[in-house]
Amino acid sequence: GDSVTQMEGPVTLSEEAFLTINCTYTATGYPSLFWYVQYPGEGLQLLLKATKADDKGSNKGFEATYRKETTSFHLEKGSVQVSDSAVYFCALRPLSAAGNKLTFGGGTRVLVKP
Amino acid sequence: EAQVTQNPRYLITVTGKKLTVTCSQNMNHEYMSWYRQDPGLGLRQIYYSMNVEVTDKGDVPEGYKVSRKEKRNFPLILESPSPNQTSLYFCASSADRAQAQYFGPGTRLTVL
User: How many C-beta neighbours within 10 Å does residue B59 have?
Assistant: First the structure.
């Protein structure tokens, strides 16, 4: 079945460092891909998305490119801030699924220190 | 303000005592879902609804019920909660299948 694998955390960085969170997926066809962010004590918020191969999603300085050849959707940010400390989830929407089901990875906790 | 609300935010209960977690959205969305979040497992879908009176099972439906009598509301019912249902629960909605989902703030449930 469809699945998402993302790197385990926690990832600890200093402010202004470069952040990469790896995400790979297994799915049939061309699923839509998403990154969600969860700040402490809050629900998930959509960070960015891509719906077809080679699409680049971007938001708030974060970017991710849909790579069909490597089945990956890695999240990157060039210069992180303390306010980026959160848990990040990679997710896909299977083509074959009914409803609006999302399949999530396990989440990666990111801690940015001043 | 567009939002998904859930109540209660925190709940501690005992095994076997029926409970309901409410979910409401003010965006006139067709699709609604319930997920549970457990450490290392990400979020897993429990049930979803595509419209009023249309619901179906997600990946982990055992021990849960839902109903969709009104478009804006999608309550999650645990008829006889057990300790393995201790988790963080999220309700989500979207305008249609292709659109991104909006998530509620979560309900942390502890079953003793």
Answer: 15
Tell me what percent of the residues of chain A surpass a pLDDT of 70: 96
Pinpoint the alpha helices (H) of chain A. Answer: none
Q: Which of B40, B45, B98 sits opposite A106 (nearest CB)?
A: B40
Half-sphere exposure of A52 (CA within 13 A, CB side): 0
pLDDT of residue B14: 96
Listed in sequence order, the residues at least 6 apart from B39 whose beta carbon sits closer than 8 Å to its beta carbon are none
CA A26 to chain centre: 15
Asked whether the beta carbons of residue A106 and residue B45 sit closer than 8 angstroms, the reply is: no
Structure tokens that stand for A5 in this block: 């694998």
Distance from the Cα of B102 to chain A's closest Cα (Å) equals 7
Q: Taking the CA atoms of A89, A93, A94 and A100 in sequence, report the sign of the dihedral they define.
A: positive
The span from the CA of A78 to the CA of A65, in Å, is: 15
Q: Is B70 left (phi over 0), alpha (psi -120 to 50) or beta?
A: beta
> In terms of Cα–Cα distance, which of B53, B95, B102 is closest to B74?
B53
Q: How far is A36 from chain B (nearest CA, A)?
A: 10
Coil, helix or strand at residue B84:
helix
Contact B74/B91 with Cβ under 8 angstroms? Answer: yes
pLDDT in tens, B16-54: 999 999 999 999 999 999 999 998 888 899 999 999 999
| Burial group, residue B78, by CB count within 10 angstroms (0-12, 13-18, 19+) | buried
The per-residue pLDDT for A97 is: 64
